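Morning run. Coffee first, then this:
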Amino acid sequence: MGISLGTDNLLAPSKKINPKGYFENKDIINIHKAIGSKIRYRPAFEGYYDSPKIKKDRANLTKYLTDKFHEAQYLVIKDPRMNDYIELWQHVLDDIHVKPAEIILIRNPLDVVASNSRAWHRDKTMALRQWQVRTLLSLRDTKGQPRLVVSYEDLFHKTLPTLKRVATQLDLPWPKDENELQKKIDGFIDPKLQKSDSGGSLEAFKAEKNLTDDVKNLYLLAVKASNDDHFLASKEFDDQIKHLTTRYVEKYGSLYRDFNTNIPGKTVYVYGTDTQQVNSVNELLAEKGIPMDNENTKRIHDLLSQVSQQLENNPQETDTYADDFAYLEEKEDINNYVRKSAKKKVVWGIGDVLTSKVIEMLMTVSEEMNLNTRNILIVDDKKMARDTRQKSQLLETYERILKRLNKHPHLVIYASELTNPGIKQQVSEFVESSQEVAKGFDYQQRVTHEVVQLKKLGSAL
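And here it is:
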């Protein structure tokens, strides 16, 4: 069709996975990856495209596109990551006065998951979530733009008429000699290379038991839009996509980008309600050469404080805030901080009274990164004994912490025992224990026992 891909610097073909090539622009991939190292969740927080976090990346994208449009009138960019940053692209294109034309390729999610599993060994549940969120974003964020939805099956089996439809509707150039184009298509497409094709009818898809109704409805909506341009342009379509997006975020929260992350080393969290007691444990850990961030570590303390203050203003959100879209920007900042620290240090940690207030957030981001954590809870039995008015509140806090740690290695220390000679050795052995040893404990059963012991302690004091 004579449209530029913008560069010869394309992602190289893979002999085993994609021998014909990906046709993905490596310069754009690098910009997207740079953005993804800061904007890690999808959907991203509102207004992310104006965030100082990605100011440099936005400038790089703007310069790249400006330079390319000096050379060509049309430019095709293909990268699956574009679904995550459609709003950014639209703002950048508007800045340089370029009109977007957006082609949304829709494929059966069963085939997408099978392809991801076969080629990249990705977890099937997370691959399906990625299909779902990227499809939602592509259909939500292109609203009001020149766009059309194309089914993978039409592009593969009816390539020439599908390309002509794209060119006609988006006002793109079309070659005079269609026979020559058909020859090129026939020489390029090899049906034997299609490894993931469920081949089922829409009725069979509707009856599929391994897909949720929201996934089914999304795919069926997209298929209908690919066959009906008036439906794609309708308020009914936009409203249904908006509804499905809201349901997705409410059910799962924003999807963390790196769901195959493997960061070696250990991250230690110290929880407590008394700063002096928390710092006592921090000092024990520091003596073992473990650097501990605390209330004087401004960046992480400020981040924890922001979340804590929001929760104080909205206590009803305590059980759900870690996946709440309203907390996403703060969650992302905490994720980036913890991630960078965990990658730089073999063993490190955070000991701050604020960890007790935002444990759900800390554990959620740690789980997303598959961090190997060691969690130490200090129970202030001394304060409970001398201040019966605060006893129930403290017990409630400790029980909440333990229940969130129910699948993770943790150690409970009583404040009255902090000066005992054996505590230092106990903490050291716990932190140094291997992952294999940690996996040998039934922490869920242990938490049940610890909660019972806490309640007995509360009754005795």
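The chain has two domains: 26-256, 266-460. Good start to the day.
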